[in-house]
Specification:
Blueprint: H1 5-14, H2 21-31, E1 37-39, H3 40-49, H4 56-68, E2 73-78, E3 81-85, E4 93-96, E5 101-104, E6 130-133
Parallel strand pairs: 4-6
Antiparallel strand pairs: 1-3, 2-3, 4-5
GO molecular function: DNA-binding transcription factor activity; transcription cis-regulatory region binding; zinc ion binding
InterPro entries: FUR, WH-like_DNA-bd_sf, WH_DNA-bd_sf
GO biological process, one term: regulation of secondary metabolite biosynthetic process
Length: 137
């Protein structure tokens, strides 16, 4: 569902972020196509293709600001590639190795059991399950 510029600005302000021109432009690209998983390089490419003059460093900084504000969720799938998920609810993922694509696991009865006790003074905040897929040989 596409959001208007005013809705994006309000969403940024509600998250405690100043709605700068670059933040608004990147947020419009991120949230215009529904739930998705993007690496910073993918968003940078989309921005350039859309005529948004922004550096890769600005994209990284903005994605981390959005994450810290609760607008995105970080998903570390590959050692050198971090994905940013626009769906911040607790859910799990498939990772298609050949394509480097992340896909949400449909809501199911997936349960993670027999977790170890966390260290003293700590609690489990979230559990990310990533199921790696490859084509049958």
């Amino acid at each position: 569902m596409s959001q208007s510029g005013a809705e994006i600005r309000r969403r940024l302000q509600d998250a405690g972020l100043r709605p700068t021109r670059q933040r608004v432009a990147l947020a419009e690209l991120l949230f215009a196509k529904g739930d998705r998983h993007l690496a910073a390089e993918d968003l940078h490419f989309e921005a350039i293709e859309s005529g948004v003059p922004v550096s890769l460093a600005t994209v990284y900084n903005t994605l981390h600001q959005f994450t810290n504000a609760g607008m995105l969720r970080i998903l570390a799938v590959e050692g050198s590639r971090t994905y940013f998920d626009t769906n911040t609810s607790d859910h799990h993922h498939f990772y298609i190795e050949e394509e480097g694509e992340v896909v949400d696991v449909p809501v199911s009865g997936l349960r993670v059991e027999n977790l170890p006790e966390p260290p003293e003074g700590m609690e489990v905040a979230n559990i990310d399950v990533v199921i790696r897929l490859r084509r049958k040989r």
